[in-house]
Write a structure and sequence with these properties.
- With 70 residues, this protein is of the alpha+beta class.
- It is 57% helix and 17% strand.
- The protein has a 3-stranded antiparallel beta sheet with strand order 1-3-2.
- The radius of gyration is 11 Å and the shape is globular.
- The relative contact order is 0.24.
- The model has no long low-confidence stretch (mean pLDDT 91).
């Protein structure tokens, strides 16, 4: 899931563009539901992956729910 989320983000946003966790959820939901149709916790999964990507320095955290690529 992490790779899919990051790939979608890197194809959609440049490093100088901020996005919200809702933006990420809206972008990734169609893809993730095709690969995990019975996962009712996708929103939590996406939020967790944003935190992990932030901790791995792939994302910069600006304020609650707002990120950008590094």
């Amino acid at each position: 899931v992490r790779d899919r989320v990051y790939n979608i983000l890197s194809l959609t946003y440049s490093p100088d563009v901020s996005f919200t966790s809702k933006d990420v959820y809206d972008l990734t939901f169609p893809v993730l539901t095709r690969t995990n149709p019975f996962n009712n916790e996708l929103k939590g999964t996406v939020l967790r992956e944003l935190q992990v990507l932030r901790d791995l320095n792939y994302l910069r955290y600006h304020r609650r729910g707002v990120y950008s690529l590094t």
